[in-house]
Amino acid sequence: MARPRKFDETAVLDAAVDRFWTQGFEATSTRELAESMQMTLASIHNAFGDKRTLFRRSLEHYLNGSLRARIARHEAAPSPAAAIAGFLRESIERSLGDGCRRGCLLVNSALQVTPADPEMRDYLNAELATIEDFFRRCIVRGRQSGEIPAGIDADDAARLLFSNLLGIRVLARVRPERSLLEGAARAALATLGLPPMPDI
Amino acid sequence: MARPRKFDETAVLDAAVDRFWTQGFEATSTRELAESMQMTLASIHNAFGDKRTLFRRSLEHYLNGSLRARIARHEAAPSPAAAIAGFLRESIERSLGDGCRRGCLLVNSALQVTPADPEMRDYLNAELATIEDFFRRCIVRGRQSGEIPAGIDADDAARLLFSNLLGIRVLARVRPERSLLEGAARAALATLGLPPMPDI
DNA sequence: CTGATTTTAGATCATACGATCTAAAACGGG
DNA sequence: CCCGTTTTAGATCGTATGATCTAAAATCAG
């Protein structure tokens, strides 16, 4: 019978996410992680494997509690148009509410992957694609129900919303100004004939 | 009379840009830079200062030969609407033409700045802002001349184009697919009543 | 109690990192 | 020639890095 673990997995993964999110993978040392996670280096290695594997686990943890949950919640709403608007509103509020101005761990990480790690790139791409797909499904459903006016090609509309959100995510880290983030989202919604973002 | 330099500054800065662009600042070691630049570590330090200063110099070099030159060229064109469309077309073609799929050094770097370096963040933000300003100037001038239809607020239109371009830049690194990049740009242009991107 | 197993704690390893040091080289001036 | 200055070359430094090692601790079963 082995000695029981002293750490709470959720708590330590939260701590790891926090560090990686703020500083990025490369600039975060294993000692800094040990400090944040309140674990020794050996314990981290025992429990999570090497640094890259911990990073991967942290991403997964972040996505489960963040992007995936939010897409599911918004998509469960009866109105596809309002789902888009609400998703954008929530994205902006979360970013603006982050005192550390970290933007989005997924987007940050996607840009930091080096060519030496195509597996990580593909993983991140698959996750990013869930955003684009969410937008597309909403557009298609909204047009079928007549809630969203026909206009440009549905694929292109989804791509516009996708790139718009990615841009907002970039700005959330480097220039988190409400007028800028809201203006970009408001314009995308308006030009696509979608309802405005709900007020908070 | 000092010993003359052996290196060509432009060539070595090109080499540094290449490395930083591909791998990012943190993941690129000074020894890798020395190899690429065909200079010793001490010579690099003598000529350019520490790693961060070299990075800054490399960014400046990249921007002079890239973003700044392109904004100036497109803005000199007689048609503000065509300037926007042409700028987007060029951005996409440059990204898709890059076999290393590096995206945009400016955007990549902006996301990699850690909170410990606000000065670098501000520098990068100022550079990014020149893109937004370019779009705004074109929108305003195009509307004055009647070439661009009135629609949503000019500031918001500029923000939409800006976030759209940032998103395209992100995708240029992580998922450089022509249909995706072109679709996002095409949708932004179409919904703002702008002309399509010129064919290549 | 011993044994098996996993976890923790602290030290340590092998290597890499950014940066610096020493000395020779390269140049023109006097 | 010597001198002054900067650059180059190669070695080295002090520290940090990701990872590992050793041994004690914690647990239940027999």
Automatic annotation (TrEMBL), chains A, B:
Query: Sorted alphabetically, which Gene3D superfamilies does this protein's record hold?
Result: Homeodomain-like, Tetracycline Repressor, domain 2
Q: Where in the sequence is the signal peptide annotated?
A: none
Q: Does the keyword Transcription regulation apply?
A: yes
Question: Pfam families from the entry?
Answer: TetR_C_13, TetR_N
Keyword Transcription regulation among record annotations: yes
Record-annotated HTH tetR-type domain positions: 6-66
Kindly state which keywords UniProt assigns to this record, in alphabetical order.
Answer: DNA-binding, Transcription, Transcription regulation
Which intervals of the chain form a coiled coil?
A: none
Q: DNA-binding region located at which positions?
A: 29-48
| Protein name listed in UniProt | TetR family transcriptional regulator
The organism encoding this protein is: Azospirillum melinis
Q: What's the source species' lineage?
A: Bacteria, Pseudomonadati, Pseudomonadota, Alphaproteobacteria, Rhodospirillales
